[in-house]
Amino acid sequence: MRELLAQAAAVAAKDLLLELRSRTAFLSMLAFTMLVLAIFNFARDPTAVSASDLAPSTLWITFSFAGLLGLNRGFALERENRAIDGLLLAPLSRSALYLGKVLANLAFVGAVEAIALPAFALFFNVPVLPVLGPLVLVIVLATVGFVAVGTLLSAMAVATRFAELMLAVLMLPFLMPPVSAAAQITARLFSGRPFAEQVGWLKILVGYDIVFVILCILVFDWTVEE
Amino acid sequence: MPASTTAPPPALEAKALARSFGVVKALRGVDFALERGSALTVFGPNGAGKTTLLRILAGLLRADRGEVRMDGRPFRRDDAAQRRRIGLISHASLLYDGLTARENLEFYGRLYGLGDVRQAAGSALEAVGLAQRADSPAGTMSRGMVQRLAIARALLHDPVLVLLDEPFTGLDQAAAGALRAQLMRLRAEGRTVVLVTHNLDEGLELATHVAIQVAGRFVEYGARAGGVDGYRRRYAEATRDA
Q1: Inter-chain residue contact A226 with B84, CB threshold 8 Å
Q2: What is the pLDDT at residue B168?
Q3: What values do phi and psi take at A194, rounded to 5?
Q4: To the nearest whole angstrom, how far is the Cα of B92 from the nearest Cα of chain A?
Q5: Where does a domain end: B143, B158, B173?
Q6: Residues B54 and B108 in one domain
Q7: I want to staple A99 with a disulfide (CB 3.0 to 4.6 A). Which of A8, A213, B6, B187 is the partner?
Q8: ipTM value of the model?
Q9: Domain presence at residue B233
């Protein structure tokens, strides 16, 4: 277990270092996030649609698509100089490789979300601070779920001709449960509804994370075989 | 009663290896066995299936039929301990352009569980003459330097089986000479080497065994016998219709 964690940490640290040097994925995700938030805000007719009605779905559309941009890079950088062969040849367990990629992707997506959330509060003028704790919990749970699945699917998609398009297509059905649950909870948080109403949606998020993290670890071995 | 002397199993053995890609039969049944400290050089024209053979031996490709055995044990691609024994120098460098030479080696050192990765990376860079470029990103290096760094990466964990795919490509005379000396040293230390190339002069110097591979088959295989001229003639004959 200790070796697995050390190897996963090595893979994640390598990915983060490469991204720190190039900043390509992070800047793309950030620029996309700001554009979507600005467009949704200014394209809205404030007399017809209130900011609080539009805010939850806007937040989750932004996080989902920005996340997709980041997930694409995870295995794309292993294609350069066939570095993936070096990883597969090393005594690195496939689970450690998957876990390392998930950790790096969580760091990228989490960093973008951390910057996007204040910008979202500013654009939409919604009361984020009073519900910050529960909102962060929901963001973490939903992000873990879609990053776990997205990392697996990006490993599959990277070998195809239209990798970026393929990831978005493959992700769509898997994005629905965590994103819809997270959007429902977010809407209720912003409208000050009682916590009891959100327990069902929270269970969906937690269940999704448990099932898909385990499933992805088990399936990943076959994804990177050849 | 005399003590029974059982011969050790071959360090590397391939039995009836076959692999197809769609309708293309890249390997059509390749057999060989190498003792510890042997060096097999596989010559063949482009498209003969040399790289496919090497990738199967490295565990990067699955054979459709046949098996690979290391020290008498079937080679399992999911066995990390067996993979740890292999070093591969491939067409591609398997390096990250955005990392420096040292960072690349330290990363692989961590994956292989080497104790002092900084020390190991430093020694490996020294061995291939890249100590002065330790902090240069791999992406800024010349083709020859990248190849030397790829060699350092492949030998970093002290593998007992070294697989090489056209390792002299891109190297200048001095670097090629240094690599030859390094490979001779590895062989003398008892490591098993498999080298695939289409360059007879470079390949023969190291070889204890020679194979000529054409259209996925070994048309000639055995202990090295004779010099370059003899092999050049046989290679020309074997590849005439390829």
Answers
A1: no
A2: 84
A3: -65, 150
A4: 5
A5: B158
A6: no
A7: A8
A8: 0.88
A9: yes
Q: How does DSSP classify residue B100?
A: B
Cβ-nearest to A89 among B62, B83, B95: B83
Cα distance between residue B75 and residue B57, in whole Å: 9
pLDDT at residue B78 greater than cutoff 80? yes
Cα–Cα nearest to A111, from A16, A179, A13: A16
A142-156, pLDDT tens digit by residue?
A: 999 999 999 999 988
Q: Are B165 and B196 in contact (CB under 8 A)?
A: yes
What mean pLDDT, rounded, does chain A reach?
89
Q: Which residues of A touch B108 (CB under 8 A)?
A: 86, 90
Measured CA to CA, the distance from residue A131 to residue A50 in angstroms comes to 19
At A17 the pLDDT is 94
Number of folded domains that form chain A: 1
- The identity of residue B95, as a single letter, is L
Task: Match 């190991």 to its residue by tokens.
Answer: B120
Q: Cβ distance A134 to A142 under 8 Å?
A: no
| CATH number of the domain encompassing residue B19 | 3.40.50.300
How far B27 CA lies from chain A's nearest CA (Å)? 17
In this structure, are B52 and B73 located in the same domain? yes
- Same domain, residue pair B178 and B236: yes
A18: nearest CA in chain B?
B98
* Shared domain check, B179 and B142: no
Strands B161-165 vs B192-197: parallel, antiparallel or unpaired: parallel
What is d(CA B220, CA B30) in angstroms, rounded to the nearest whole number?
11
Residue B91 located in a structural domain: no
Residue spans of beta strands (DSSP E) within chain B: 12-21, 24-34, 39-43, 65-70, 73-74, 86-89, 161-165, 192-197, 209-214, 217-223
Q: Which of B123, B138, B158 is the last residue of a domain?
A: B158
Q: For residues B238 and B199, what is the distance between their CA atoms, to the nearest angstrom? A: 15
Query: Which residue type occupies A198?
Result: Q
Which tokens hold the place of B10?
């071959």
Of B226, B86, B95, the C-alpha closest to B158 is: B86
| Co-location of B238 and B172 in the same domain | yes
Residue B129, domain member (yes or no): yes
Residues B138 and B149 sit within 8 Å (Cβ to Cβ) = yes
Task: Enumerate the H helices of B19-83 as residue ranges.
Answer: 50-58, 80-83
Q: Are B105 and B153 in contact (CB under 8 A)?
A: yes
Give the length of chain B. 242
Query: Are residues B110 and B228 part of one domain?
Result: no
